[in-house]
Amino acid sequence: MLEVVVLGVLAVAAASLDAVLADGPGPFREAARLLVLERRTTPQADRLLARIGAIALPLAAALAALVVPFGGHAALDGRVGVVWFNAMEVVGWAAVWLVGWGANSAFALAGGYRFIAQGLAYELPHMFALITAALAAHSLDLRAIGAAQGGLWFGVWMPVAFAVYLLSALAMAFWGPFGAPLGADIAGGAALELPGPDRLVFLAGRYGLLAVAAAVAVPLFLGGGGGPVLPAWLWSLVKTCAVLALLVWTRRRLPVLRMDRFVQAAWIVLIPAVLLQMLVVAVVVVD
């Protein structure tokens, strides 16, 4: 369970960095503000569904963290770690949609459906990027995939798959250019009607997903814990922090994409590009 604790700390660090970049209140001050907000609800809201969704988001992040290796060790036997990670990501889909649906609010529901549309756009490129790394290592185990990069990181000779994974990591956490599900144009979107404590849990899950996605990028494309001098677990942590900082930075530097344009780009550009990358990897592996 140490992996879950480490990624929880990284999620708090991501929230702190985001606050610094936005010149806003720190995560602990914001948490205190949300905890004392007066509860509110909309008429005929399904508060149970909304609360289940808010809780399910950080739960999905925590369960995904169980297969993340730090120095070759993972909390769960991750022989199908890639599949487990992807499955927990789908739980996040359901969580955001439940939050939007349960509020019985037009804006919140629009935010929930935006995330479903976003998921349908990014999920196939995301899956193909995962499969490309697994194909090169002949394994679905994140530890084995990281160990297979002793000579050359997959991110170097699979740049398209790596780029697609980073984009899908942002979309998975509805972050930065993919923040439309919580967009200001729909008054805050899916989380609009969440009361303070529930909103705090929901946002914690969002940062948790971002941290887990950054951590999984390390064994997939950055050589896992491989590196000179430092122990493997520390290399994994350093690489994870670097990826996480990059993902957090995008929120203040890139505009939010219109959903229809992202869907079009995903199906016309990303899927063919990552399929071509997979074909190249398959030819290299067979040879």
Automatic annotation (TrEMBL):
Membrane association type: Multi-pass membrane protein
Compartment(s) of residence: Cell membrane; Membrane
One GO cellular component term: plasma membrane
Keyword annotations of the record: Membrane, NAD, Transmembrane, Transmembrane helix
Keyword rRNA processing found: no
Family: Belongs to the complex I subunit 1 family.
Descriptive protein name: Respiratory-chain NADH dehydrogenase subunit 1
Naturally occurring in which organism (per UniProt): Actinomadura verrucosospora
